[in-house]
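Page 37, continued from 36.
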């Protein structure tokens, strides 16, 4: 592995329920500001969700918005913002500077794609006694699994490889891993990689989590997402996205890029045990696999960003894995980001990592909020709750992200 080119993050573009750029997102995490709000959707009625409020017209025209999807809009916004943050595109321009668009790859992790558009079309034709002449001819390109990545290519004129990776709620990490691997293989020279989610616009996901008894409720929406709290009662469904610009280190240095972080380790595995229920043993193996890839010991990790979704059993399983891997490390701190934004599904891994990256510079760890009474089964050493923690150093971050059908992912980044 040592002979592979080193890969670095040089730009971050994001849309989250509590912030629409890298700096705003970080400021709201440190301020304890939640982005969960009251929400209502067809057939479900009043509920709660994490809703993004980015300017959809900043990087798209009316025609693109009319023909495209919400996931496409999120992807386009994040891709443009990531390129601008990396200094690879001037504000308002469609031109990607320095790199050949034929050698630029787009790798977008998704939980699922197409349900929103299909539900909308069924609803529309139901108004006309299911006369299918009213069915939109845009439905097929809107629902193909590569749509979010494909919409970015249309927006930016990128002609390199562009596709989506279906990895349930581990998908954000998968996009990042794929971008890294394609750069190391020499298949592309620039990767735009991460994950997106439009989940709040399909009533089916709310109905399904509701039927499982896994949909969070709370009189105060901002307190509904409460990982590790004894009273936690389920997931807050959210939309969002985060895409990174990834470059080989030598290329980034040659152009004088500002390097946000270096990606040094990753691992993906499967539980092979249940459709929904997580398995602590395999999560443990996933974290250890990433450590082995990076050539690190558990004591070398400074921050573990947990996947914990605020479900009773899921949080316990993950805490068992974290204790097993990091229980002996006095300098490894543990936090969670879903407590602020809910579960952004395919975007979760990428977006939650972005919230921790500024710790390399300011040496502050954002906490898990809404922990009124810590569940004893979720106690882990150095769990940061309710208030930011200043530390002496932050050199490495492990980002954990898990999903249905037992997929587990872990990514390790370090301060450059």
């Amino acid at each position: 592995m040592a002979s592979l080119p080193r890969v670095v993050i040089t730009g971050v573009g994001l849309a989250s329920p509590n912030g629409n750029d890298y700096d705003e997102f970080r400021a709201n995490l440190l301020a304890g500001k939640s982005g969960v709000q009251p929400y209502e959707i067809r057939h479900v009625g009043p509920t709660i969700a994490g809703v993004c409020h980015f300017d959809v017209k900043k990087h798209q025209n009316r025609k693109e918005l009319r023909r495209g999807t919400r996931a496409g809009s999120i992807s386009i916004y994040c891709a443009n913002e990531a390129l601008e943050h990396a200094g690879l595109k001037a504000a308002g321009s469609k031109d990607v500077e320095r790199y050949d668009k034929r050698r630029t790859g787009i790798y977008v992790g998704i939980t699922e794609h197409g349900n929103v558009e299909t539900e909308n079309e069924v609803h529309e034709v139901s108004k006309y006694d299911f006369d299918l002449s009213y069915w939109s001819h845009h439905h097929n390109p809107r629902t193909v699994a590569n749509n979010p990545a494909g919409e970015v290519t249309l927006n930016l004129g990128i002609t390199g490889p562009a596709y989506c990776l279906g990895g349930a709620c581990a998908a954000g990490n998968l996009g990042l891993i794929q971008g890294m691997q394609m750069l190391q293989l020499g298949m592309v020279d620039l990767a735009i990689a991460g994950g997106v989610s439009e989940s709040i616009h399909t009533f089916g996901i709310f109905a399904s989590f509701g039927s499982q008894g896994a949909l969070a409720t709370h009189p105060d929406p901002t307190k509904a997402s409460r990982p590790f709290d004894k009273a936690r009662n389920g997931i807050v469904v959210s939309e969002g996205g985060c895409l990174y610009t990834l470059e080989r280190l030598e290329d980034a240095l040659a152009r004088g890029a500002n390097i946000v972080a270096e990606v040094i380790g990753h691992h993906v595995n499967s539980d092979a045990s249940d459709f929904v229920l997580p398995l602590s043993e395999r999560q443990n193996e996933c974290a250890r696999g990433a450590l082995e890839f990076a050539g690190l010991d558990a004591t070398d990790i400074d921050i573990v960003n947990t996947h914990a979704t605020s479900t009773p059993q899921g949080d316990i399983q993950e805490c068992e894995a974290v204790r097993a891997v990091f229980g002996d490390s006095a300098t490894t701190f543990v936090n969670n980001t879903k407590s602020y934004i809910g579960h952004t599904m395919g975007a979760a891994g990428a977006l939650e990592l972005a919230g921790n990256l500024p710790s390399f510079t300011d040496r502050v760890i954002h906490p898990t909020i809404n922990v009124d009474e810590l569940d004893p089964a979720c106690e882990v050493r150095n769990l940061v709750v309710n208030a930011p923690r200043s530390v002496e150093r932050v050199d490495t971050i492990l980002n954990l992200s898990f999903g249905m059908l037992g997929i587990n992912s872990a990514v390790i980044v370090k301060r450059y």
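The CA atoms of residues 335 and 395 lie 16 Å apart. Flag for discussion at group meeting. The chain has a mean pLDDT of 97.
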